Structure formats: structure tokens, C-alpha cells
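At this stage, I put together one protein's amino acid sequence and its C-alpha cells, which the following lines show:
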Amino acid sequence: MKKIGIIGAMETEIEFLRKLMGSEIKKTEAGSIVFNEGKIHGVDVVVVRSGLGKVNAALCAQRLALQFGCTNIINTGIAGAMAHGLGVMDFVVSTDALYHDMDATGFGYAKGQVPQMNVFSFEADKGMIEAAKKAFNSSEFAKGEDGKEPHKIIEGRIATGDQFISDKSTKERINNDFSPACVEMEGAAIAHACYLNKVPFVILRCMSDMADDLRTNGYDFNEPVAAELSARVVEKMIQLI
């Protein structure tokens, strides 16, 4: 039976989805994290705020897999745009994810690869990728309704690290090393845990900024809007997985 785990790092990334669950929510605190079990449009879900960073995200995904028996995991939220032509409020759905701050090149590994693992990056589930794209394409903000410019979605690599990217030199280095579509702080850790537990996953991110000079891209203004847009696509996704 399908049971979808949905992880957002921050409250703004999950509050819309939690409201959709209504009053019939079972709350479980485990590892200082509150897991919200219930239904969205008749689908069994567990919605959870992991907290920021790789360790919090991985621990959360591990509990969703082992303690709550989730059959699929979605990571929703915001990110900094990296791919050429990708702008604020556009979307990225993950093809794969890796750590941009993992460097064991001194032991002969490629930059970004976790030592002694048989994969370079963690590949997202193809069916879930297609569900994300279909959900996005059916959304009102993909069509540019009410006189607004349409947003777009691309497939691409997610680069994760315990670092908020906000300067051009760091952005350029990560782009040169990994050519990601976007950069954020949790996705690859969730992907890593899902890979080890053989749970299909996908990462969906709405761009809140351009991962460079924060004075020019309005992160604080964009963050709650981008977080809700991502959650609205997830709402549609869960019925397609």
C-alpha cells in the first residue's frame, strides 16, 4: 500500500501540506522531530519538518523508511538556481543528487563521491520524476494565468552541502565541479538514505534565489512564496505516484 513521506527542511516548506491534512493528524515525536501522519486527497502521507542540513535530513528520511514504512519519499522546498536560464520561481526536479562539499580526492575518489560507495550520485526514481513534471504542467502557475509570466520546470542534478551559497565565486566553483541545476542543503542526504533503504525518491525545488549576491535577489521575500509553490506541486504529485 502506498504511503508517501514528504520532507521539508523548514516550516514554510510543509505548512501548506499539513493544512491539507485537516484535523485528522496523528503526531509522533521521534528523535526530536514531529512526524504528521494522515491523508491528503485520500493518499496516506507522513509530512515532516526535518530541520536544516544534511544530518537532520538523513535522520528524518531514515525514520520515514524504517519507522513509518514509507514506500516513496519526496523532498520539497526551495533552492538556489544554478543552471543557465533558470530563474527565481522556476522549478527543478532531480535526476540525481550529490554532495558538493564531499572531497575525498586524496584517496583517489572523484570530488563529490562518498568513499567506498559504488555510486557517484544518487539517482531519483524515474516514475516520480514524471509525476512531478505532470503535476507541474497541470498547475496554474505553469500556464502564466492572470497575466503572470509562466514558470518552468527542468530536470537536473541537485548539489547539496552544509553551506548556504550566496557568493558568485562559490557558485562558479560548484558549477565547474558538478554542473548542477540547483544547490541546497538537504536533498542529497535524503537521497543517500533512500538509496541505502531502497526507497524510491525525488527532490522537487522551487528557486528562491540565484545562489549569488543576496542583495540582488530578494531571498527573504521569495522564500515563503517559493516554498508554497513547491508544496502545491507536491499536492498534485501524490495522486500520480
Observations:
- The domain at 4-237 is CATH 3.40.50.1580 (Rossmann fold).
- The first helix runs from residue 11 to 20.
